[in-house]
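Please, structure for the following, as tokens.
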Amino acid sequence: MIKLELEGKKLKWTTLDIVKSTVSTKSGGNGLPTKDASKKYGTPAKAKAAYDAAVADLIAKGYRDPMAPGAAPTKITPRNAALEAAIRANREDAGPYQVYADWLQQQGSPVGELIVLSQANKKAAVAKIIDKLGLPGKGLATFGWRHGMWQWLRLENSGNWMDNKFDAVALSRSVFSQPMCAALEELRIGILRWEQNYLDVPAVLAEAKKRSWAADLPKLKLGDVDSDIDMAHHQIGDVGKPISKAFPKLRQLTLHSSAYDGGGTTETFGLSGLDLPELRELVIETCSMSKKRLTQVLAAKLPKLEKLELWFGTPNYDGDANIKGLTKLLAGAVFGTVKHLGLRNAEFQNAIAIAIASSKIAGRLESLDLSMGTMTDVGAEALISSASSFGKLKALNVGKNFLSPAGIRAVKKAFKYAVTADQKEADDSIEGETHYYVSVAE
């Protein structure tokens, strides 16, 4: 079976399937009715010929397979490292792109024409050149354009995560070697294989390291998945050292992952060895912040870090970190340049609030996010009592906790700018005890 799509004002699609001597089709689209049809042929061979002809006809009309794997450019694809570096030196300036386009056209590369047509907003002509380049379908790779090259790139096997034979490295190789990556500003990686993602992501990072554009990449997001994907079922692997080796000039890094102990020896979510001298923002979204992972994070070499956001989670998914593990951070012994701090989604949210209210770093914080956890009025009172300690604070988020109406009013009185929305209700149904829970437990 194959599904082909036609992009336009309204997305249209057609699926074709063949079973023995019968060819079945189903077509529809956004705002269009679904139509089914089938036809039986005299022999399986005749059915196959009709099936192939129907696929060819749809492709001739502009339909494409969103799961087409793509292929890496041949070795003779012309590249100019100096001109690509000039583009990365000022990604916003269209001039260096135009210079590179002229050079590529002189070498006979269709990418040169692609840049020119893209800057002229000739979408139909651009689409034809993209077809010639043999890029993967949008079910595997999506991207955003700037001046005829890719501004951002996202990889995900959205067709069948359960396909254990899917080759994530081959996909990344076919995309990373394209000249359009030369000006890449952000790389996002979603799910590649459901059960082997923790192996695939580090392998893809290693493939990226081979490319000159990786050394200048400023933004990276691993675990770029839809919000309806349970975090507990998604792991990105041992990525600390691979990230540092591949992308030494990162300025923004977001990691979204849990950890899974299936009895093996391979780390499903590791953060050791982070060494990023230019990093300004680090966000780690997890339900599995263990003591070990927290230690790894706080041992990272991030001399210019300005924003740090950590989620904690629950011991049920290896999230056993506690307030003791934050001692060095709150004492100002690590990450002395951080002025935007998020310590979120913690079962010990009250302890965090109490500790940070009397900490050495309170006076330098400009924003503080303590949302999504189990904070009650006890934690809120600690913040209120030490409001004068937060001399530079301009933003406070204590939403999605367990504050009472009176607690909310008190927080807003002490911190005019505080966000207190979406407070949760405690669960009293568990063995007669009041249960407070984090927002993302799995």
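The domain at 136-435 is CATH 3.80.10.10 (Leucine-rich repeat, LRR (right-handed beta-alpha superhelix)). The chain has a mean pLDDT of 93.
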